[in-house]
Amino acid sequence: MTTTLLSFLFAITILTITPGFDTALVLRSAAAQGWKRASATAFGVTLGCLIWGVAVGLGLGALLLASETAYNLLKWIGAAYLFYLGIKLVLNPRSQPEEVKTDKAQQGFVACFSRGLFGNLLYPKVGVFYVTFLPQFIPAGASVALWCTLMALAHMLLGLMWNAALIGGSHYFSRQLRQPRVLKIMDRLTGCVFIGFAAKLALSRR
Prior knowledge:
This protein has one domain. Helix content is 79%, strand content 0%. The chain contains nine helices and no strands. Helix 4 (68-91) packs antiparallel against helix 9 (180-203). The chain is globular, with a radius of gyration of 17 Å.
């Protein structure tokens, strides 16, 4: 149990700090509208992760309880998907950061929060990733819905801490995370993590 939890925390930490759309969104909000509205954006982004985790946990739990065949099919699809993502990141890392367009006009807290929340919820790769990534960390016989929710909550808390650091040092991080060398290192590191967990998932048993 301890090894599984530590593995999950290590993997999710790497994923959280890897620059992506969410990172660009928070940094852009901090630079354009200040730390308060950037905090609202960050909370919306991380709340989206929690909602995805709850939704995936409820649907995934029903699926896994229904069929051994469905479980094995999901396992192999998940392993293949993680392996694909890993190879893609290792062989073809980004050299340019993702850009986020925002209005120049000052937006209210609700608008900033909504932008972060729906930017996450309308990004289906988050749900697909949760479906393929979370099952390998759920103990045998445990509640799938509960564990998915707890893991998504852990992801949310890590995301809040990381975003707080991003907002606090927005000028520094914005400059550093836009460097091609940093992006390539982070993408390749994330790719290696994906490949490792793809192998772990493929070799696991129910």
